[in-house]
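> run fold Flagella basal body P-ring formation protein FlgA
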Amino acid sequence: MSYKETRKRNFRQSEVKRKKGKWGKGLAFTFLMLARSVYAQQEPESTTVKADQLHMQIRTQITEEIQTFAIRHQWQDLETDIDIAIPASIYHLPVCPEPMIISASDQQALPIGNLKRQVSCDSAEQKWRINTTVKVRIKLPVVVAKTTINRDTKIDASMLKMQTLSLYRNKDFVTQFQAIIGKRTKRRIRSGQLVSPSYLQRRWLIEKGDEVLIVAVKDGMQASMKGIAMENGAESEQISVKNSRSSKIIRATVAGKGKVQTIF
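> ok
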């Protein structure tokens, strides 16, 4: 008896080919991914400066500057917003083998507003520098005028209030009442306006019209008499003083609160 091998009629040869094709594509994809992984591990490190690293370094330094200033001037409840602009030329600069140097290239007293920072590499192998711009906005409670304060007015606490403001200009401000109470205004300050130290006169030890003690010194001897200050004066400044007894006007040096000294 003989047997003849025949195919099953409902069996499709194309199914086998299709299944084999799927496995082949999957293996090829896996091999490709492994090859890329090995290549990435062997790829050499970047030889140019990375913008994100420089961005982080500048942000860290600016944040430290603001924090130092805040502690020194007793800023409270401070919020900051820092925006850094780095020129596209950074992508063509070689990596600095030493820590990059970041220095101020502006004359601003406050770390607020548009700041200019120069980044430089000063190693033996590489020397380069670029300029960056940093925009700083801060938000904190500051002293503002509670009412309108006229020019040449002596400041007291009833004229002031605290208000939280966003500041983005290089303009000085005050965060505590005691820093300005007793000073006189140089100009009119509107109600709700930020009180800047530039709007105020110096704190005088002696003000015009004050009664003062005149101490006259000569050869180890001294005499004292009363007088009237004819102008404002800070410590060690010379002012005109009128002798209350003789009405004579002399020049004397401010020696303390309500006290002047002269030589006769």
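The chain has three domains: 51-139, 140-199, 211-263.
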